Design the sequence.
């Protein structure tokens, strides 16, 4: 037995005794809980005695990577988090910004990678459930979700199974609750084989004064557990594997959490009604680490304490121990702090929504997290060390050799060739990384709530803000291949591309939430990726004046020792001042001028062309000049603001040829032909398919071309007329000095829209 | 070779939340049906299968469940061979 | 004119319907909770879309036992105008106010996109503002929209002109490409024999403002407002 | 009064298209399972019910089906009382 130094009399009431049946605290048990001996000694120090089994579980959850940010906190501190429009930065359930006219926007991104790898349908579904709760517990009504998905290669049947399950799960859950999907992304690359990345983002709108925080203050106020009952779901979600728990069969300790979107919808309505009622002080989702994290974080934030009796918590199964009740990750539950004396009013609101509520404890002033079981103390922990005391580490970071070699590989064998590039183009467009995502978002309700101005399929999703002229634009971005080959560059590109997407819709980028998906940070080459990516994000977010208001960290994304590509997903929101000016990516009228903003360069590294045509992940990701990006976006916004543009589209993966095709295809209906001639003296592969940053394809009435050009000049942005919009159903022609793509636009459409359904439905 | 009617019952794992079963239980309650305890909602599959023996049919059905018909993470399954389950007669 | 929008637990288009009626049409509209037993005296009752009771068991199967549904039945029996959209349509079928049933889409997938529906019957309280044969572009978003009824019922619906909306191509043609869910006879919406209860799967309330891309659904609300104005005078 | 486990099988009406059954049949085919004929996909509901006799339990379950559990337009149902169907043993 370790730590026997003290039989324990902590401060305050009787110290908890071990429960009958609790395992003995041994070094093995401590290790199984993911705690190092040093960390364990700190715990003993905070308690002044050996922890009980229950206390060990509580610490292990709160000091896990997921809740405690051991390996990322020091890096995260570097992120810019402030701006005059930021109402709530990191540290709450969601970030909040001011969007004018008395409204505020809450938003946050969250990962559900591991649950989705085990059970894609439920994993994605409960991911959506969790992120919705993060947003509505701030007092905001969820108005949109986005999903950023990274899977292995679609040739694998396992990957198709995961992809199909994730899309159905995310869809069924969001559709049922009635939150439109406004976008996301989907990548398929062997870098995610076995370990898919499922990140979901939610946005909510509220009146500024409706903001409520997850705080537990007011000595004597009542803690109520609300919503679904507590079962044995995902108890070790935070830390360790089931085998170590004991004799109980697998079946009695299911790791999978099952989502119940119907209960979520009731919980959403009930929570908003509760918040508006004034009967409650604070509210928080019981997410990761369940009651433990919700109660202790609420206490921690407000410097108070809590006491909870687990015997009062409504359970789904008999015989649950305090350990299980405290750590259960059952879905669709809330912890609510109620003004003393208003419990009945709260109960009535919940009853209307057919939900249960139980008084499970109280707010105290002793700063302690105290747990009773039927009156008997089983845990008594100082709250602040529990929530804030998790040790943080700075690790060694060294770039991996293999990556460097891949980045520095010679690409000349793949860059050459001229003549007919039509076949290459059509093959590239059929790549699951470039083809239309309609197969995905046709399974998502995108129009419920009657606010979707631009639905998925364009650069950014756009929502109207009722009662104002404004719109919100939103996007998620991260190309893992860039971040793999050069993490810092990749992260800068992710931020720049997100901002460019928003600017194309006519929105000013405002703020960022992010999800850091990485492998095991204890490996130097992974910590290197993490550090470089965060530093890249720091630089780009500062330059675009888009502070980071929150996010999530998901580490240890590895299968049999193979890590995923480092994937710092950026979720960015922007504001469109006047929805009259909202701009879409599709070309409109025959005869309009097609204009390239930005410059074509000779870069083929890290491209989808190399992956799809030559099965190569290699080369340097495209250079990114953040200042040039910023002025490009400013020029775009100025042109859109003056009503000069008919369309604007970000140029990214697949290069210029693919961007032109997307604009010409018009979302499938009435696709238009185009004739484009590129004068740049570059190899046609790089010119057509290279992924140079800082470019946008816009179109305008020829009468406005001169004004657009003068505006671009004023910003110093290269502006070149490259072609003309043709007739509906015409030919798609892109040519350079020595090469040419020519195809019937309907044929292009058949490839672009057919690729995913062909791979997914024709099994 | 004969044709067997295989009946496969797929049910949510014990201990896992079964929102559908819960909703049905609740609905039966509020319709005034007394004495209703737990309700579990699962799937029923009836498959016609050519096989040489009932044992072989069962073995193949088991593999089908493992591979496709039941989710190993969230569902249990049970197989019954040969009952003429394909045509449940409607009670009237 | 006064309208009520019924909210069941799990309804999620109730607010959208309320907004269109109130803000776009200027109709005095309020929510009514499913546990109420009295509708008041409205000119229009809307059963909105969503997932009442999670659509567990079958879409609409549990909601039809809500107390308010009895009131809706009485109201419809008196000739009151009832509009069921999506989940509302499913509830009307389950409750026996409309014949037939809505099964899972034949693709087995949730389908969310714009569809084209042709106005087959102009002569109803719901469609007078449209031209006969007009093709509308309106979003759908459902997993169980595959309309089915026995052959005799289908025959009767057709003979009596009670198929009000039918899925077609953009050009208004039936056959390949128009029908998103496998519905019998490409049926998207039907009306009861008395002509006062209509159910449809597409969402006209999502196509009633230019900023959302289509105003083709507006005609239904205009028809209803005009009808109710006439009914009040009469 | 004893507790019965009622098993209710709800299946698509004979003669109606069963897209889910079709899809499963297709999937089994393409996974290489030979000899698979028609597949029908339905629902299985397992209900714990307190009743005085098996007959009474069956009668009540029938009423539940008529009222709520099956849609007469599209579904047939069959009821079985008393088999301990709640815990199908996972085949291994
Ligand atoms: N990558 C990140 N960048 C900035 N803030 C982060 C990041 N990851 C997490 N945070 C912030 O840290 C706080 C704690 O996060 P977390 O414990 O994940 O909350 P939750 O309980 O919602 O999972 C949150 O406010 C979150 O926004
Ligand atoms: Mg988190």
Sequence:
């Amino acid at each position: 037995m370790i730590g026997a130094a003290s039989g324990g009399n902590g401060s305050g009431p009787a110290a908890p005794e071990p429960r009958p049946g609790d395992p003995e605290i041994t070094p093995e048990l401590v290790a199984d809980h993911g705690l190092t001996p040093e960390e364990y000694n700190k715990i003993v120090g905070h308690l002044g005695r050996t922890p009980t089994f229950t206390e060990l579980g509580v610490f292990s959850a709160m000091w896990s990577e997921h809740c405690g940010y051991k390996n990322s906190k020091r890096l995260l501190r570097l992120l810019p988090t402030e701006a005059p429009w930021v109402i709530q930065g990191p540290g709450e359930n969601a970030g909040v910004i001011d969007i004018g006219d008395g409204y505020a926007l809450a938003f946050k991104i969250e990962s559900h990678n591991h649950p989705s790898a085990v059970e894609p349908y439920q994993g994605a579904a409960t991911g959506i459930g969790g992120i919705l709760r993060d947003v509505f517990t701030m007092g905001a009504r969820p108005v949109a979700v986005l999903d950023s998905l990274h899977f292995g290669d679609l040739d694998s049947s396992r990957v198709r199974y995961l992809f199909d399950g994730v899309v159905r799960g995310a869809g069924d859950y969001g559709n049922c609750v009635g939150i439109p999907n406004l976008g996301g992304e989907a990548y398929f690359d062997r870098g995610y084989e076995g370990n898919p990345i499922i990140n979901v983002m939610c946005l909510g709108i509220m009146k500024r004064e409706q903001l409520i925080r997850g705080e537990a203050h007011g000595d004597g106020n009542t803690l109520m557990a609300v919503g679904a009952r507590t079962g044995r779901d995902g108890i070790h979600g935070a830390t360790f594997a089931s085998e170590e728990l004991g004799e109980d069969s697998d079946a009695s300790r299911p790791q999978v959490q099952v989502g119940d979107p119907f209960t979520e919808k009731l919980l959403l309505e009930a929570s908003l009604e509760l918040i508006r009622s004034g009967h409650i002080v604070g509210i928080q989702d019981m997410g990761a680490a369940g009651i433990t994290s919700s109660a202790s974080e609420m206490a921690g934030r407000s410097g108070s304490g809590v006491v909870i009796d687990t015997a009062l918590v409504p359970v789904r199964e008999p015989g649950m121990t305090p350990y299980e009740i405290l750590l259960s990750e059952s879905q669709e539950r809330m912890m609510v702090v109620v003004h003393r004396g208003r419990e009945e009013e709260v109960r009535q609101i919940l009853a209307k929504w057919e939900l249960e509520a139980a008084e499970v404890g109280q707010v105290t002033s002793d700063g302690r997290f105290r747990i009773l079981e039927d009156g008997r103390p089983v845990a008594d922990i100082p709250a602040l060390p529990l929530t804030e005391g998790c040790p943080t580490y700075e690790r060694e970071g060294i770039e991996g050799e293999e990556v460097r070699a891949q980045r520095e590989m010679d690409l000349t064998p793949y860059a050459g060739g001229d003549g007919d590039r039509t076949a290459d183009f059509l093959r590239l467009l059929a790549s699951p990384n470039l083809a239309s995502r309609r197969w995905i978002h046709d399974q998502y309700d995108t129009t419920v709530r009657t606010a979707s101005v631009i639905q998925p399929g364009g650069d950014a999703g756009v929502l109207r803000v009722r009662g104002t002229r404004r719109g919100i634009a939103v996007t998620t971005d991260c190309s893992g291949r860039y971040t793999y080959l050069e993490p810092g560059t990749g992260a800068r590109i992710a931020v720049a591309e997100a901002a460019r997407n928003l600017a194309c819709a006519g929105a000013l980028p405002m703020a960022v939430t992010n999800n850091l998906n990485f492998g095991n940070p204890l490996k130097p080459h992974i910590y290197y990726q993490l550090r470089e990516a965060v530093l890249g994000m720091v630089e780009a977010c500062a330059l675009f004046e888009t502070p980071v208001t929150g996010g999530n960290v998901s580490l240890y994304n590895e299968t049999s020792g193979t890590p995923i590509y480092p994937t710092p997903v950026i979720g960015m929101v922007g504001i469109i001042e006047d929805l009259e000016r909202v701009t879409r990516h599709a070309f409109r009228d025959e005869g309009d001028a097609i204009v390239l903003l930005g410059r074509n360069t000779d870069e083929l590294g890290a491209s989808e062309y190399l992956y799809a045509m030559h099965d190569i992940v290699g080369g340097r990701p495209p250079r990114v000049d953040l200042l040039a990006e910023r002025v490009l976006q400013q020029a775009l916004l100025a042109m859109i603001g003056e009503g000069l543009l008919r369309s604007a589209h970000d140029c990214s993966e697949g290069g210029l040829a693919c961007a032109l095709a997307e604009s010409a295809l018009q979302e499938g209906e009435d696709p238009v032909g185009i004739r484009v001639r590129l004068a740049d003296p570059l190899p046609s592969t790089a010119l057509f398919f290279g992924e140079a940053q800082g470019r946008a394809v816009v179109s305008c009435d020829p009468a406005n071309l001169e004004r657009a050009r003068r505006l671009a000049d004023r910003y110093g942005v290269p502006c070149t007329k490259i072609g003309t919009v043709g007739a509906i159903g015409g030919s798609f022609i892109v040519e350079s000095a020595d090469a040419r793509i020519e195809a019937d636009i309907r044929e292009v459409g058949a490839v672009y829209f057919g690729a995913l359904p062909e791979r997914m439905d024709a099994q | 070779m004969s044709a067997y009617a295989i009946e496969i019952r797929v049910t949510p794992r014990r201990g896992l939340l079964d929102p559908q079963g819960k909703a049905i239980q609740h609905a039966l309650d509020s319709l005034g049906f007394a004495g209703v305890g737990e309700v579990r909602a699962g799937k029923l599959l009836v498959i016609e299968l050519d096989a040489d023996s009932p044992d072989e049919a069962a073995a193949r059905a088991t593999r089908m469940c493992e591979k496709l018909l039941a989710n190993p993470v969230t569902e249990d399954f049970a197989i019954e061979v040969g009952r003429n389950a394909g045509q449940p007669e409607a009670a009237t | 004119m006064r309208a009520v929008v019924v909210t069941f637990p799990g309804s999620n288009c109730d607010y959208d319907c309320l907004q269109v009626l109130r803000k776009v049409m200027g109709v005095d509209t309020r929510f009514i909770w499913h546990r109420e037993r009295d509708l008041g005296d409205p000119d229009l009752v809307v059963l909105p879309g969503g997932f009442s009771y999670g659509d567990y068991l079958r879409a609409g199967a549990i909601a039809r036992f809500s107390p308010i549904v009895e009131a809706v039945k009485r109201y419809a029996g008196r000739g009151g105008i009832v509009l069921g959209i999506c989940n509302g349509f499913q509830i009307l079928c389950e409750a026996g106010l409309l014949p037939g049933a809505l099964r899972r889409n034949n693709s087995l997938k949730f389908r969310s996109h714009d569809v084209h529906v042709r106005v087959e019957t102009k002569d109803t309280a719901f469609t007078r503002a449209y031209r006969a044969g007009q093709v509308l572009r309106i979003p759908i978003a459902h997993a169980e929209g595959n309309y089915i009824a026995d052959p005799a019922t289908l025959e009767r619906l057709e003979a009596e002109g009670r198929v009000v909306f039918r899925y077609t191509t953009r050009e208004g043609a039936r056959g390949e490409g128009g029908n998103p869910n496998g519905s019998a006879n490409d049926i998207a919406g039907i009306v009861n024999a008395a002509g006062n209860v209509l159910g449809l799967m597409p969402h006209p309330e999502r196509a009633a403002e230019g900023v959302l891309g289509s105003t083709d659904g507006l005609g239904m609300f205009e028809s209803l407002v005009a009808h109710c104005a006439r009914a009040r005078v009469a």
Remarks:
- The longest strand of chain A covers residues 141-151.
